[in-house]
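FYI - complex with zinc ion, inputs then prediction.
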Amino acid sequence: MKIAPSILSCDFSCMGNEVKSIINAGAEFVHFDVMDGRFVPNIFFAPDITKSLRKFSNILFDIHLMVTDPINHIERFALSGADIISFHVESKSDVNKTINSIKKRELKPGIVINPKTLPEEIIKYINDDVYMIVIMGVEPGFSGQKFIPETTEKVARVKQIIEKINPNILIEVDGGVGEFNIKKLREAGADVCVSGSYVFSSKDRKKAIKLLKDS
Ligand code: DX5
Ligand code: ZN
């Protein structure tokens, strides 16, 4: 299981040190939540921030676009040092065109589904170009929310679907993840878990990440 701490929960007064701390604590990805105040009711963060944090490490930068028209933001995130760019199937952009735009820049595309979106709705987009499916464990927009228990079954269903089409696709679960639910998510087929408040509120982040991985 790979751990992707979300910097939405970090202390913004010392963002650089916060990113360094999770890299040193054993995280494999750094998860960046991008919000436009339209697709979700919150606003957060521009590509310039990713660019300035890029100098600390080559760790995978996992960009989660919670924006109305993600295709318009691919170019600037690509130039800012992104590795994975995930966008919502519920957004306005054409899914295939957005995947192509990410691939064209030699980055890894991810498709995100909201809690109310059924796995069956993304079957038609799954092919060899897709790197990751992101399953929201909370409604997008805020960290620190309670995990929606039905997510675990959804992970198992997505796993079944991708096994038939492209078993190399990773499954990431985003939101509400902690030591209390990560074991079940792993058993259901999750490969990466995004954890914001759980990791950043732990006194010992190394221990917290180890606990998540060992669970
Ligand atoms: C929710 C974000 C998540 C969130 C995770 O909109 O996409 O990445 O920050 O935070 P926790 O782990 O606190 O739910
Ligand atoms: Zn996220």
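Residues 6, 8-9, 31, 33, 64, 138, 140-145, 174-177, 194-198 surround D-xylitol-5-phosphate (ligand 1) (CB under 6 Å). The beta strands are 2-5, 29-36, 43-44, 60-66, 84-88, 108-113, 132-136, 170-174, 192-195.
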